[in-house]
Amino acid sequence: VRVAINGYGVIGRRLADAVAAQTDMELAGVVKVRADYKARLAVEKGYPLYAADEKSRTALKALGVSPRGVADDLISDVDIVVDACPDEVGAANKATYQRLGRRAIFQGGEEHDVAGFSFVAQCNYEAARGRQFVRVVSCNTTALCRVLHSLDGQFGLRRAGVVIARRAADPDETGKGPIDAISLDPVTIPSHHAHDVNTVLPQLKIVTMAIKVPTTHMHLHSLLLSLATPTSEAAVLEALEHTPRLLLITGREGFKSTASVIDYAREKKRSRNDVYEAVVWRDSVRADDSEAYLFLGVHQEAIVVPENVDAIRALCSQVAAAESMRLTNQTLGIAR
Ligand code: NAD
User: Fold this and answer.
1) Which residues pair with 134 in a beta bridge?
2) pTM higher than 0.85 for the full model?
3) Ligand 1 centroid from CA 6, angstroms
């Protein structure tokens, strides 16, 4: 499957590496707007570089990295485009994908309606088959869908309440804040995340509220769940142990903060310290009759990477969901 990556930022660069690592995919090229060191590094990695438009082509040439063409040249020559442009730019790009008759995957910064189908591999891989467009949901929504889909299947979820402490910016976004405040994000309840979870799991009753905290690594969710079936901590943990792409850690082992999780990924020599799994603190899990509580960590830069790789297979191949997830996990070093 020949794949183009349109937009080479936080998500796009990770997707390019992940696609290049798949034996059933070929990275046909990446599209850049800005002439910067990231463009030079893409060429050094051997990735075919394309300019977003003629203006970008001129700027990239001036940098000394000659693009092979512009975005349209690449897009005309692939099976699928993964759009990793900033929020709402993907929606604007859709007309190009339609004009050139190409399949495309959008990211969580776009509205559900841009693709008409919101994707999380564990929840709805098979239903994505045959579609021209899907949207891989945001980092927070991906993590919530993995955990809530699994617990709903096991115990039946009557209601989920989620408080989300969001990282203020990605590590290289130096212009964003807050630096010394906790922002209500937004002040009103629910935050948009509840609606977004419902684009994948429409039946789920969920309320989310979000705050923004001065950190660049990871979001932290506090989950308060009401279950249809009374349960025990051991049973909840067992369900989590069988949830795909979920890492169980413990405070007892020294995982006292999100910083320890990133440090763990560094020690494991993960590419860019990436944590592709939803992370649950084992010793945070409490179950009291029909209620359950837990802390869930989300590495915002990484968690959607395996989902995009699976979405490519769902749209462009006959590979079944379990096999695609196995292949993706194997290449990215995800245990299960
Ligand atoms: P980013 O700003 O880091 O990267 C976007 C890249 O696209 C930039 O390099 C930008 O120059 C480039 N670009 C802009 N216009 C373009 C165009 N017309 N053609 C080609 N390239 C263009 O953004 P990001 O964080 O990678 O986010 C991309 C998408 O992924 C968004 O929808 C976002 O909501 C979603 N997402 C982001 C995160 C995260 O934590 N960063 C997590 C999950 C999902």
Assistant:
1) 105
2) yes
3) 9
Q: Which residue has the tokens 């604007």?
A: 92
Going by their DSSP bridges, the two strands 49-51 and 80-83 should be labelled as: unpaired
How would you classify residue 73: left for phi > 0, otherwise alpha for psi between -120 and 50, otherwise beta? alpha
pLDDT (tens digit per residue) in 42-75: 999 999 999 999 999 999 999 999 999 999 999 9
Give backbone dihedrals phi and psi of 210, rounded to 5 degrees, phi first.
Answer: -130, 145
Which tens digits make up the pLDDT trace of 145-196? 999 999 999 999 999 999 999 999 999 999 999 999 999 999 999 999 999 9
CB atoms within 10 A of CB 116: 12
* Atom number, ligand 1, closest to the C-alpha of residue 11: 26
- The verdict on the CB of residue 7 being under 6 Å from ligand 1 is yes
Is residue 67 within 6 Å of ligand 1 at its C-beta? no
Ligand 1 binding pocket includes 106 (Cβ within 6 Å): no
